[in-house]
Amino acid sequence: MPAIPTPDTPYSAFNREERNAVATLYALLFHRDNLAEFGDLFGTGGLTFDDVDTEVFVEFAYLRDLWHQHPELETRRRIILAAVQPDDAAELETCDPRTFNRRFGVAGPISSDHIQSPQRWGVTQLHETLRLDTGEPLSNSELLDACRFKWSFNIKPDLVVLYGRNRALCVEAKLESGISSYPTTAAEKSIFDERGLDRVSQLDVQRHMFDRLLERRTTYGLLSRTGTAPHPALTGVSWARLLTALDASGMPPFIQRWVTQMIQP
Predict the structure, then answer these.
(1) Is 110 exposed, middle or buried (0-12, 13-18, 19+ CB in 10 A)?
(2) What is the pLDDT of residues 88-110, one digit of tens each?
(3) DSSP state of 229
(4) In terms of DSSP bridges, do strands 159-163 and 55-58 run parallel, antiparallel, or are they unpaired?
């Protein structure tokens, strides 16, 4: 006998893991005409793998991987300055790597040899850092721009379809969790409160990444139990409505069982 009693029902019938749900949906999108149905529900229309530019990703980590593709010090410096556009850019263009890293609030050991990833920036450190031109703390707008860039490296939208020359569909998928916000730690929240800054939702960070940093014409969707969306820029679709529209015939039985239980009220 197993130490923990196991039900007669297969796990696919009661699995509640969001990442597994997204992975299963990902598999479904490659089946029959499901990608087109998916696009229609979220308002893009015309999604097809016949378009050679169409790519589908789970846990979209574009900025992290782009950073890895460009290890050159000066290229990384230009990426940061173009994205954040700090007021002391002239000084940052010529300073040494250690000064550059310290100016952007790298948390932990600071490198003297290379420009460190924005993933390493700390909100507390950015709050305490001083501009190179005036020696003054960062303004609220400067702090927010740096934080949004940092968070854009950290977020990984659940499911992204890149298509056409410069289009994207970005879908956040929720089962039981809610939409998260930044900053996340008590100390960082205290800094935002001290500065009179509002929390920044993960959906706002996604829009910052796609619209401003990547300059892609992007449709934003929220997949949830209810299908409601908290913002007019989002298209809300329920799991039941989506999975009813997708064709699961011919898929493995466990996927068909999962689809059936997800459609049930």
Answers:
(1) middle
(2) 999 999 999 999 999 999 999 99
(3) -
(4) antiparallel
